[in-house]
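To whoever picks this up:

The parser on our side crashed when reading a file containing two proteins. I've narrowed it down to the boundary between the first structure block and the second sequence. Both blocks are reproduced below exactly, byte for byte. First block:
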Amino acid sequence: MCEEWMDSQVFIGWAVKNGWRPGLTIERIDVNKGYSPENCTIIPYALQAQNKTTNIRIKINGEEKCLSEWCRIFNFPFKRAWKRYHVFGYRDVETIFYEGDLRRRSIS
């Protein structure tokens, strides 16, 4: 954390001036740099969760999103998609988001 933010009043002033309110959180723009006014922004918690470096990123039709976001878009159970990716090692989108039971899926 930068020296100026060690003073909690300075930090609170920056946060409020930059749009903080309940339901929002501070996010580093560059995760490899520290917390400072030039490297931080205020965003919703849901967006911050999508920016974690541990997220599974999947590209569909040239658009990359985290697995949880694709699950919301497709209305698909996240735990099922996560298990197919992590436990079974599937990487193709059709298999990860297949609606049925993979044990009954015929593979051509």
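<<boundary where parser fails>>
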Amino acid sequence: MKGTEIREMTAQEIAERIQQLQEERFRLRFRAATQQLENPTLLRTIRRDIARLKTVQRARDQKEGR
């Protein structure tokens, strides 16, 4: 997920996407503890996507004065 894609999303879409990625990350971490993952770099990718989403979300909140 790229920064330009994230900036085009609404605040509600960003919050929903963060929730989805956090759930997916939890499932992957649980699966990684019990068995080998097909794509272990997916955990890193998801973690970075969450960080990008939260960064844009926080910048918008600060801009609005929250």
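After patching the parser it read the second block fine. The chain has one domain: 3-64. The mean pLDDT is 93.
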